[in-house]
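A reminder from the course coordinator: this example appears on the midterm review sheet, so study it carefully.

Given structure:
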């Protein structure tokens, strides 16, 4: 019987260059996402000197900055980290939808893997859970997804 050829990404960050785009809005949550992502990448062999951290105002600006970084062709992958917490107006829905769509468009248009670490939560408690407590750390998960995607694309 023939063997199925399997392509899978190895979780080895050695030799890569990564940009992390992190929002300042809700920074008490986002800083925990950044910390988790940095710890994960360094534990998987990424030299801290090969990481560029870009701070931006909020989630709505994530797509533009991710696109500019991808267009520069200096980075093997980009992490988009932020937190949008629902308030009393529809603003939450617009920001989340446009940020998500724009990040996806930046990734598809550039061919650069972008780890999606934008929390979209109904409450501060949900955001805290996803930034390092009960729900794990979504910054770590976004970094892992980005890293694995980089390594898969190298094999295609």
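Designed residues:
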């Amino acid at each position: 019987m023939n063997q199925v050829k399997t392509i899978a990404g190895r979780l080895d960050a050695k030799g890569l260059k990564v940009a992390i785009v992190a929002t300042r809005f809700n920074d008490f949550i986002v800083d925990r996402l950044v910390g988790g992502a940095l710890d994960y990448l360094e534990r998987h062999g990424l030299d801290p000197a090969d990481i560029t951290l870009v701070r931006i105002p909020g989630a709505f600006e994530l797509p533009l900055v991710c696109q500019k970084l991808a267009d520069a062709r200096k980075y093997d992958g980009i992490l988009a980290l932020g937190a949008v917490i629902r308030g009393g107006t529809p603003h939450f829905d617009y920001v989340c939808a446009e940020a998500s769509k724009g990040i996806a468009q930046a990734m598809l248009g550039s061919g650069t893997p972008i780890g999606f670490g934008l929390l979209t939560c109904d409450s501060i408690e949900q955001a805290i859970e996803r930034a390092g407590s009960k729900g794990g750390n979504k910054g770590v998960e976004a970094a892992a997804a980005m890293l694995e995607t980089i390594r898969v694309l190298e094999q295609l």
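Residues 21-154 form a domain with the Rossmann fold fold (CATH 3.40.50.960). The longest helix spans residues 91-110.
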